[in-house]
Structure to design on (937 residues):
């Protein structure tokens, strides 16, 4: 049951579920300034409470608050022209100096969590002297004015953020003669999924704010209203709020009058000059991306969330009630030498069922299951749906049982209408599903527009198609195998699809004319670059050295040679249901035989038979066994992969009693496969302090730290930050700790506390503090890098100063990013293939403002390998870039759960495993008695 193998670097062509902020397309909405939505089960996230009586239903889209709220949008709003009849009070704005347009940080995916009194975790007494004092000091520092991230790439505070400020200073260690380029390895020619932009005009663009009165929320309608004045405006780009033109309008502020075709309503369009965008401004890149999206619209692609998909090329999977829509992720950016278009294929999973279908499935079980509505809410809250009529995606934040399509809401003019009438008049749709609870989604666009005022979008389940795949689907081997045949794309096919996309962009007449209008030329040839492939790393067993070869896989060597170090096991216990005792005895013999082949001596275990395999029986027997014999390890054989039994065993042995444990499924015991026994023997050795192999890292006195975060599976407002640090020069001994924290609480304080604990433990074990530190920080989105640099790095420095004194200690802080769009292809004899493990890319497609590089560390047999992006944001250690790259590759060899390289450095992967175990299973910080063992493998 304990995971033996991590994912083997599966192709990134797998289905991706878009969870982007929803658009606003004519939906009834309500500001959440009303009290009291009751009936929500504990643990289900929802928006701030609202009163859900039908008579107080939401007004039509776009109602503006009358109070003077701070305005938050992608651009500051110009002062309205005086003397114009307005239906709303004038908006106030702060004066702003000229410069590039500000960018709003991505919003958190979910609503603000509500903390209940029974969800707090009792603080654990810290046994290490001195750590508490340092922690208190860190808490007093605070983060100043830095924004506090909540999720991946999310920022709390809703303040405008200038993207330029996200550019952290490039460390001086990457500014020498060689810059950030390494030197080791064999040069290799690669192709990347980037297309060069071969020519473009050195624009001086003029930026204008566009407002509509009465307001209009659908961007398509706004575009149509503005297009009625194309002759006067000339060539322009419009994103729904801002208009960019190569010409300066005279006068700079003016009004236009248009007629809305749907109802002949006269609409006043106010155009106001806001800014000049000079050549070289960051906003130039934004305009490039805006132009690109305009071109994509001409390809008859459908915008779903943030990306474009091709419904004409959809793949039907009727046996699973799914559709796969192929699409593209595209972005234009400024790279080392040129402006490049990065294009990656994407797949949107569309389920052929509506939310109403799912509701009916849950309701069909209402006689046997009284909690069927709770099951429905659990299954729908937090997911993303797509509305049938306009292909907009919405994240569901709550369910309102007290309203249905027959409920009324108040329109702007004070009149009332039902949802059924609204959808019939607005979209010509008839709702036939009868009484169905309304879905609630927080309207992200209105949050941006109205400031602190949240607005809710009410959705009808019958009109919402479910997207993405559930955990049950992921566990369906047949479904995932069938899906992989379409989504796991090899390098040759991926290159063909990307080239076809570029040709389609360059051969569609409307797209061509759009590019010509702005004098933009795009190449249809993938960019070429020179990378380097590092040689295979030497790996050491107790008696002999070897390497993993071109595929970075040393399984055959591992089975035949002694492990580097083996733990001493005096006594251990196997718990099993009585009916399976004979099979367990045979399994124990195979386990001892496999261990002996690697010179790991496992004595004969004590087999404890139980009456049955129920959870209560396990708990009783575990307590009895620990009190009787105090075993070094307990192996539990469970009848099926039931999460509740696994969780109970792990919580008992990781929180209450601090005993290393191994959980094995009965079916694996019955198979009695020597290969499986070998992997379990390796895991047992690691959990007791042994090390299967060694990769030599020459520098002495270095502590390498991995850090990752995972959310609590039941309490969405609680997260666990896991820190794993090496404790010896061989980097085979580890210390780990987990710090729980509430969402919105500064993670950096807990992170620095963990660092302090690791330093104290290192000094206890080695008699001296480490001479240098390298931190690999996972789980950071692009929007969080500024926060990490301003707060976590600074508090890390402060924590080290309090331990070391004023001289502190040199360290490097590296951001590890796995979710990237970059792909690389190596020309081979049989066509394009994946680059070999150890391939480093540090030119052409890297960022000139960053100390960054890409590393392909894995070999994959199916699909296209996904590289990992590393960004060094702080470096007082001043290791040469070549050493930093080679060290990172070495560390991908040292994850003991897999006899091959993994995608990220081993301390990062271990931190992920620990955070995941804590967040999904333990839901409390583990016992400190286990903090020097890899019990979480």
């Amino acid at each position: 049951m304990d995971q033996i193998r991590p994912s083997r670097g599966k192709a990134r062509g797998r289905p991706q579920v878009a969870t982007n902020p929803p658009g606003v397309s004519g939906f009834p909405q309500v500001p959440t300034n009303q009290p009291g939505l009751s009936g929500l089960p504990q643990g289900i996230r929802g928006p701030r409470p609202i009163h859900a009586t039908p008579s107080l239903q939401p007004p039509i889209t776009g109602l503006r608050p009358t109070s003077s709220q701070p305005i938050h949008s992608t651009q500051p709003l110009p002062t309205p022209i005086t003397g114009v009849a307005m239906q709303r009070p004038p908006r106030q704005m702060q004066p702003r100096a000229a410069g590039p347009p500000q960018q709003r940080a991505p919003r958190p995916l979910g609503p603000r969590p509500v903390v209940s009194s029974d969800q707090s975790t009792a603080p654990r007494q810290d046994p290490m002297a001195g750590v508490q004092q340092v922690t208190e000091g860190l808490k007093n520092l605070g983060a100043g004015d830095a924004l506090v991230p909540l999720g991946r790439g999310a920022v709390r505070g809703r303040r405008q953020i200038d993207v330029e400020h996200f550019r952290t200073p490039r460390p001086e260690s990457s500014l020498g003669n060689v810059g950030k380029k390494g030197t080791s390895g064999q040069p290799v020619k690669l192709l990347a999924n980037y297309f060069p932009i071969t020519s473009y005009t050195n624009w001086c663009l003029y930026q204008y704010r566009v407002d509509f009165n009465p307001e209009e929320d659908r961007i398509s309608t706004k575009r149509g209203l503005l297009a009625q004045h194309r002759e006067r405006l000339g060539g322009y780009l419009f994103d729904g709020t801002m208009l960019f033109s190569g010409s300066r309008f005279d006068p700079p502020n003016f009004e236009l009058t248009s007629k809305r075709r749907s109802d002949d309503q006269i609409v006043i369009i106010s155009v106001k000059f806001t800014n000049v965008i000079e050549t070289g401004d960051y906003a130039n890149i934004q305009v490039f991306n805006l132009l690109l999206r305009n071109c994509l619209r001409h390809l008859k692609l459908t915008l779903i969330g943030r990306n474009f998909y091709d419904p004409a090329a959809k793949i039907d999977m009727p046996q699973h009630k799914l559709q796969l829509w192929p699409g593209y992720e595209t972005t234009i950016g400024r790279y080392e030498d040129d402006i490049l278009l990065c294009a990656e294929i994407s797949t949107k999973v569309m389920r052929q069922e509506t939310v109403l279908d799912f509701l009916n499935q849950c309701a069909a079980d209402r006689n046997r299951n009284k909690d069927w509505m709770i099951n429905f809410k659990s299954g729908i809250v937090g997911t993303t749906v797509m509305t049938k009529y306009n292909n907009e995606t919405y994240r569901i934040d709550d369910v309102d049982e007290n309203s249905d399509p027959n409920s009324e809401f108040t329109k702007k003019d004070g009149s009332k209408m039902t949802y059924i009438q609204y959808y019939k008049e607005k979209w010509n749709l008839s709702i036939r599903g009868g009484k169905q609870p309304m879905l609630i989604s927080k309207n992200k666009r209105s949050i941006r527009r109205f400031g602190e005022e949240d607005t809710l979008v009410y959705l009808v389940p019958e009109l919402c198609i479910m997207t993405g795949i559930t955990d049950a689907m992921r566990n369906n081997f047949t479904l995932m195998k069938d899906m992989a045949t379409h989504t796991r794309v090899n390098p040759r096919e991926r290159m063909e699809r990307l080239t076809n996309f570029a040709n389609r962009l360059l051969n569609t007449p409307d797209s061509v004319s759009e590019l010509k209008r702005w004098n933009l030329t795009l190449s249809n040839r993938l960019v070429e670059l020179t990378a380097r492939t590092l040689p295979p790393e030497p790996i050491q067993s107790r008696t002999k050295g070897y390497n993993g070869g071109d595929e970075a896989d040393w399984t055959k060597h591992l089975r035949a040679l002694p492990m580097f170090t083996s733990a001493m096991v005096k006594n251990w216990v196997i718990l099993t249901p009585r009916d399976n005792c004979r099979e367990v005895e045979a399994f124990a013999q195979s386990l001892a035989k496999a261990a002996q082949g690697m010179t790991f001596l496992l004595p004969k275990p004590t087999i404890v038979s139980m009456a049955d395999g129920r959870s209560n029986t396990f708990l009783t027997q575990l307590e009895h066994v620990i009190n009787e014999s105090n075993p070094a390890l307990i192996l539990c054989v469970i009848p099926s992969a039931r999460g509740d039994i696994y969780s109970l065993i792990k919580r008992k042995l990781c929180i209450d009693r601090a005993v290393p444990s191994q959980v094995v499924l009965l079916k694996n015991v019955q198979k009695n496969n020597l290969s499986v026994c070998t992997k379990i023997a390796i895991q047992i050795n690691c959990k007791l302090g042994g090390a299967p192999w060694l990769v030599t890292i020459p520098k002495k006195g270095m502590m390498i730290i991995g850090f990752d975060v995972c959310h609590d599976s039941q309490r969405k407002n609680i997260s666990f930050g896991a820190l794993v640090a090496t404790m010896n020069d061989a980097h085979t001994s580890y210390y780990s700790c987990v710090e729980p924290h509430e969402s919105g609480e500064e993670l950096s304080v807990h992170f620095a506390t963990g660092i302090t604990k690791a330093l104290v433990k290192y000094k206890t074990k080695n008699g001296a503090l480490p001479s240098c530190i390298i931190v690999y920080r996972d789980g950071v989105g692009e929007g969080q890098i500024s926060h990490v640099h301003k707060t976590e790095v600074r508090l890390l420095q402060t924590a080290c100063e309090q331990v070391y004194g004023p001289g502190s200690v040199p360290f490097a802080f590296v951001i590890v990013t796995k979710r990237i769009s970059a792909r690389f292809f190596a020309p081979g004899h049989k066509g394009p293939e994946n680059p070999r493990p150890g391939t480093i890319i540090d030119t052409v497609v890297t960022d000139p403002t960053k100390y960054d590089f890409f590393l392909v560390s894995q070999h994959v047999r199916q699909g296209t390998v996904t590289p990992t992006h590393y960004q060094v944001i702080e470096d007082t250690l001043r290791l040469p870039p070549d050493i930093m790259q080679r060290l990172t590759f070495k560390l991908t060899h040292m994850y003991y759960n897999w006899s091959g390289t993994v995608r990220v450095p081993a301390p990062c992967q271990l931190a992920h495993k620990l955070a995941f175990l804590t967040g999904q299973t333990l839901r409390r910080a583990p016992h400190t008695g286990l903090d020097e063992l890899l019990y979480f493998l």
Summary: Confidence is low (pLDDT under 50) at residues 5-127, 141-166, 445-453. The longest helix spans residues 747-766. The chain is about 25% helix and 25% strand.
